[in-house]
Specification:
This protein is of the alpha+beta class. It contains 13 helices and eight strands. Strands 5-4-8-7-6 form a five-stranded antiparallel sheet, with helices on both faces. Strands 1-2-3 form a three-stranded antiparallel sheet, with no helix packed on it.
Length: 305
């Protein structure tokens, strides 16, 4: 056996005849390649319009995945074999669509290939699942809602309707926190510290929009707010960006008087475009008043829409 750099040459001798057999080094096992290979075996070739005759293994062939992803068969083969380096994020997304990966599987592929999650894309939502609504309803005296990255309120509980805004009485296009804060005199009057709240909200809104990949989706909303509210227009031009942090919301409620609420927010099902917002009374007196007000509304039939 002869050893050269990177290539092993085995000298095989058969009764006076010498044959050189060159063995190329094997590619390193690729977690990404293994994952992609396994995923394509689960696809239905017939449903995707491919002939299944003379097919020895289930799923799609490599050339069929390459065809669906608009990449070369050779390059895709190398990718499964762990050769040729990391793919671009754009090429990986084409492969994800070709393999019909779920969002979780797409993220996993990006982590395996590039060591980072894929860029977010805004999905939009006009409602939540019954399970999420049950979570909201399990907080009977803490105002809670689910909002989108464009700050549209898509779900809320009875306490939110009683203490914040009865969103069920509003038209769909008006169920937006920014529209209420800057364009609704009643909502504006309820904010005891409107100026600081408005600064914070616009800066947090800008960050949310970019994080969720919804910049294009909010253009019409931003233009509308800039036309209707000089205050919003000025704040938007500042380009300030902030993350949410723990803070206390102080309101002048028309029935309850002044109340203070601690603010917390949580991601909904790991989606960057949905946020669960919960407000908890900061003291026993506010808790008592909110409890009595929410209960009185239940007896009169008022409930979230």
């Amino acid at each position: 056996m002869l050893q050269t750099t990177g290539i092993q040459v085995n000298l095989v001798v058969y009764q006076g005849i010498s044959i050189n057999r060159i063995t190329m080094p094997r590619a390193k096992e690729s977690p990404l390649g293994t994952f992609l290979r396994e995923r394509r075996t689960h696809l239905d070739a017939v449903a995707l319009g491919f002939d299944t005759q003379r097919r020895r293994t289930p799923g799609l062939r490599r050339e069929e995945v390459a065809q669906r992803a608009h990449v070369s068969t050779t390059w895709y083969t190398w990718l499964e074999q762990g050769r040729g380096g990391a793919p671009s994020a754009e090429a990986l997304d084409r492969i994800a669509r070709a393999l019909m990966l779920t969002e979780v599987e797409r993220e996993h592929a990006h982590m395996l290939a590039l060591g980072r999650p894929p860029g977010t894309s805004y999905q939009g939502a006009d409602s939540v699942t019954p399970r999420v609504q049950r979570v909201l309803d399990s907080l009977p005296y803490s105002p809670a809602m689910v909002r989108t990255a464009t700050w549209d309120v898509v779900a809320w509980n009875a306490a939110a309707a009683a203490v914040l805004t009865d969103y069920g009485t509003l038209e769909l296009h008006k169920r937006n926190i920014l529209k209420l804060l800057f364009c609704d005199p009643r909502a504006k009057q309820m904010q005891r510290e409107w100026e600081s709240v408005s600064h914070f909200v616009v800066a947090a809104f800008r960050a949310d929009v970019v994080r969720a990949g919804a910049s294009d989706e909010v253009k019409a909303l931003v233009e509308e707010l800039c036309r209707q509210s000089p205050e919003f227009d000025a704040l938007w031009r500042n380009h300030d960006v902030r993350n949410y942090s723990d803070h206390v919301k102080r309101l002048r409620h028309p029935v309850l008087g002044e109340i203070a609420l601690e603010h917390s927010q949580f991601a909904v099902d790991g989606r960057a475009d949905l946020c669960l917002v919960v407000y908890n009374p900061v003291n026993e007196e506010d808790t008592r008043r909110i409890r009595a007000w929410v209960d009185s509304r239940k007896t009169t039939g008022s409930a979230p829409g």
